[in-house]
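Review this today:
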Amino acid sequence: MRRNTSVFLAALTLFPLTACGDERPPPGMPCLVAGEATAVAAAVRANAPAADLPEDVWNVIGAAIPARKQITVVRVDGDPVKIFDQRFSPPSGSSQAEKEARNAFTNALNAVFSGGDEATGISAQADEVNLLEALTIAGNAAGPGGNVVLIDSGLQTTSPLDFRDGNLLTVPPDTIVEYLRDNDLLPDLKDRHVYLGGLGSTAAPQQDLDNRLDRRIIDLWTKIVQVSGSSCVHVDTSTPTSPAPAVRATVSTVPIPPPPPPPGACAETSLGERDDVGFLVNSAEFRNPDGARATIKKIADVMKAEDQTARLTGATSSEGPTGRNQELSERRAEAVRDVLIESGVPRGRITTSGAGEFLPGRVDDTGPGGRLNLAKAVLNRKVVVELSGKRCPR
């Protein structure tokens, strides 16, 4: 963040020292409101580009100082803490004393953003990343009507949103947000104005996200903010390209799930979220009907060309009653069957069944305290397709 300090100092000159809080944002400033309390959650950390704040954010911080609003900086490392939490309170007396006090205040704030490994600086001190907790701290500091700024890649590596299990990247954002909401794990952002930057941007040794996963990370954090009550959210889609800085704290790399293999004759294929054959929660309705049909049509093409038959077995995660899961797994297998038939496969060449939550080879999707592990659960929500025929080895 060191290179933006001069921008910040220049921005401060735009705002006179007054006790009023009625400054308005410059034209084109998205979502953020000048002259209100502002909390920034960011860190100079491994596996992400340097977290440079855009000029719009500096302007908002600059407006908060003469308005005597709280300015907070929260580190987003594995142990999020407030490393700056002050409001400008000028001394009574001469204008020179007030000017000196303002300079001291801005110098202290600049030291946070331009510091190296000092515990009071923005450089990560604790291993891993905890964005949800950092957002909670920032939201509480900004308060209703205030501004919250998050600058990070979005790849959290601590519970309950631990992307170190690469399967979590395949879980739909709606499902993750519902889980966080049901378990009271969302930050309080009611009536806050939120600015998100850097989402999906990584630096070596973290592997890049492809366009689809990048979009999924952006969608996830946007939905988290919206469901948490934000009055508005702006996502800065510009892509930082600077390398990850050298810091003492480590951050685990997040494994990127490989693309699904193409369906083959005489083969077994598991259809799930990564193949676009995911289902709505507690439903046999496809989450992405067009994507599901495109995937299943490829299997239909193999069946027709190779004179294959298909055995479809539906499966579910462990949440919910066993009887409901059994019935749900059967209906999901039948949903895949119906698309195969629509694609020209004779009904007589398809059999369906359901295994509920007891499919052989399933993974344990129960986490600490019996809580569902989303990354594991998504692996069990699938339909297994077994293709066979006269030319298949016995």
